[in-house]
Amino acid sequence: MSKKDSVKHIVIDAEHKLEKDDQGINAAKKESMKFPMIFLGALVYSVGLNYFLRQVGLYSGGFMGFAQLFEFLLRKVGLNFGNFNLSGILYWLMNVPAIIIAFKKMRKRFIIKTLFAITSVTLLLTVIPIPKTPILEDTLANTIIAGFICGAGTGIILWMGGCDGGMNIVSMIYISTKGKGSIGVASTTLNSILYLIMLFLFDVPTVIYSLIYSVFSSIATDKIHTQNINSEVMIITKLSQTKDMEIEVMSRLHRGMTEIDGNGLFTGEEVRVLIVYISKFEYSRLRGIIRAHDPNAFIVETTGVRIDGKFNKYLT
Hints:
Blueprint: H1 3-22, H2 25-32, H3 34-53, H4 62-76, H5 87-94, H6 96-105, H7 108-127, H8 139-159, H9 167-178, H10 183-198, H11 204-224, E1 230-237, H12 243-253, E2 257-263, E3 270-279, H13 283-293, E4 298-303
Antiparallel strand pairs: 1-3, 1-4, 2-3
Helix pairs in contact: 1-12, 3-7, 3-8, 4-5, 4-10, 5-7, 6-9, 8-11, 9-10, 10-11, 12-13
């Protein structure tokens, strides 16, 4: 058996053992602890939307923007709902087809967390009142703050392995399948269509301010959604035997590694250089594994690298 096949079999055996461990109580407890954070993300998003964006008569992006638009049109034709916020319910209904698609493509835990996130957003948008007067006098300031707050809320939900629904679900399916793409970029593309429609219904400033909100929201989402940020990590170690460390990295993170033999220029000592490409979200786990095997290892992380080739993105 070749060295390559030997290592492959060892990694597979280690993965099987870890899968059994992941099905235990600790894994279930770890997943359950993410739901309060998902609710926090939904709360942050809902506060940003109702307190800063909707209060000044602007519109969100994605499915929520279309839900707001549908509510506006229903009121326009004479259906009066009083002070009741219908957009949250419309948003939930619009997400049903997207959830059905995700159910066939994504993990069940992702579906459960996504349903929880969408339901939380729907309820919170309904119960959180829209202030009678703007929080800030300047419309642009309200728009930018709303973008950052709502984007942060969405980012927290995505960070916890869930999704707030809408185009983000479709984006996550595409990224998980193709290994490339960005949630923020996909959202901006859909929003361009939404705001083009709005140009025929509202004045130009409303559309421009809403578009500004979309851009800042996308930026905030991509900054927090660290699973979607690529990183290159180089590990320099003086360990003579790195096989156990390499196998643990490959089996726990499902990432391949490149090994290079080298020498210190001044000391002349033999070193091993390991290179691995991961998401920024995985860095803390990788660092923990490396430090457990070699507390003195030299670790360099470069974030935001562009990867062209086969690279799996684990978003959930």
